[in-house]
Amino acid sequence: MSGPFEDANTTTIMKARRTRSGEVDPYAELRDESEAELFDRVRRAFRAGLSRTMAALGDEPDMARLDYAYQQAERGALTAAILPVLERNALGATVVQTEGAKAAPLVLPVTWDEAVIASAATAWAARYVGELVREITDHTMGLIRRAVANWIDTPGLTIGDLRRTLEPAFGEMRAQRIAVTETTRAFAEGQKLVQADLARGGLGLVREWRTSMDERVCLICGALEDRRETDGWDGYDGPPSHPGCRCWTVLAL
Length: 253
Known about the structure:
Layout: H1 28-57, H2 68-103, H3 114-153, H4 159-166, H5 172-200, E1 206-210, H6 219-224, E2 248-252
Antiparallel strand pairs: 1-2
Helix pairs in contact: 1-2, 1-5, 2-3, 2-5, 3-4, 3-5
């Protein structure tokens, strides 16, 4: 598929984790499991959210009923679905990187403290998920407003029609895109935390971009394959470079 997005038109989580040269993503198994879990949790949260939204709007839909309390409750439900998985993903990435550093011919800094890195991963997850959930729910509210306005302005539409219009906003395709993108982001962030801690101890490593080079790879990621962050990543700070990105990075001397 060409263009900036990889295929997300089915509910099958993508598992391609291999570069053109055959290098396998060190997080491959964990990412597959995490994507599947996050997809299921977000899908369930969306499904319940659609039912709550339709009940709140009522038989004569009124956006005023989707008040501050409603929006806070929806953010809370989505946070509960996403936060545990992304926190575990970021922590999992630090564990993989820590084990890799110990196995590599590197002398770890005397300041190395795995507990500090784990704490930083937990703090990142809490902060980031708050931002992510606000973005998701704000976008959803915009979609609901437009759908309700169209429903009011179009005679003959039923409540069933309104629900069908809203289903994509709470649908499986959106849930999958979130699962793939945010799993990629959490693992990339965990690696950055390890890189930063090594740098504080005097061991400077750089990240190299790796891409799943298959028929679904996009033009953005294909061009970044094997490039070091010191060479520039076209304005990106690391994966994901776009929704649905499956890329990863490795630390190198």
